[in-house]
Amino acid sequence: VNECEDRQKPCEFVCQNIPGSYKCACPRGYVLNMDGKSCRDLDECTTMQHNCQHECINTVGSFQCGCMTGFRRGPGQQCIDINECNENRGLCGPGGTCHNTRGSFRCTCPEGYKVDITGEQCVDVDECADGRCREGCQNLPGSWRCSCPPGYIQTYAWGQCEDTDECTDGSICGVSQCINMPGSYSCQCNTGMDFDPNSLSCI
């Protein structure tokens, strides 16, 4: 008797007639249940019956391969690194340098710039935020400049202001005595005389 030809099909999928009995089988991607008749999906991912390089996604009767962030599907089931630097020329911003890494990239920035919180752009460092200038600070692209009040000059070694000695200019007070003061100077004459700034003389 060929049980496989019975109107009440004994197998869910494939029936193989054998002498005195029959045997059920399942198509690819399925396994036979304990009842010997019905089939259930084979999870190729958990049973490691796949050839995925990164990620395995089980589907009914089969599986699909996926790639991690920073990779794309290549020939077969391979995952190929994406060169973000070549595909997005705007990465790291003007002056920054983009370096491709496996699955990602990194930016290096010129002096006076730093990588922002996204890791994708170089942004100006606000050097004035650390209080490096005593009198006042002007942040510039990639740099800074200290501002000084009248009578002072900037010392570039420390970004501070120091008094200008106006008296080094021998003609500033004419014949009177020049006395340097913080941020200014004074022209002094002998007792009983006053300094005339127009004629630079004592009268």
Automatic annotation (TrEMBL):
Domain EGF-like: start-end pairs: 81-123
One cellular-component annotation, GO: extracellular region
Listed InterPro entries: EGF (IPR000742), EGF-like_Ca-bd_dom (IPR001881), EGF-type_Asp/Asn_hydroxyl_site (IPR000152), EGF_Ca-bd_CS (IPR018097), Growth_fac_rcpt_cys_sf (IPR009030), NOTCH1_EGF-like (IPR049883), vWF_C/EGF_Fibrillin (IPR052080)
PROSITE patterns on file: ASX_HYDROXYL (PS00010), EGF_2 (PS01186), EGF_3 (PS50026), EGF_CA (PS01187)
UniProtKB keywords: Disulfide bond, EGF-like domain, Glycoprotein, Repeat, Secreted, Signal
Keyword Repeat (UniProt): yes
Gene3D superfamilies assigned to the protein according to its UniProt record, in alphabetical order: Laminin (2.10.25.10)
Cellular localisation: Secreted
GO MF, any single term: calcium ion binding
Principal location class: secreted
UniProt-listed PANTHER family: EGF-LIKE DOMAIN-CONTAINING PROTEIN (PTHR47333:SF4), VON WILLEBRAND FACTOR C AND EGF DOMAIN-CONTAINING PROTEIN (PTHR47333)
Descriptive protein name: Low fibrillin-1 quality protein
Native source organism of the sequence: Mytilus galloprovincialis (Mediterranean mussel)
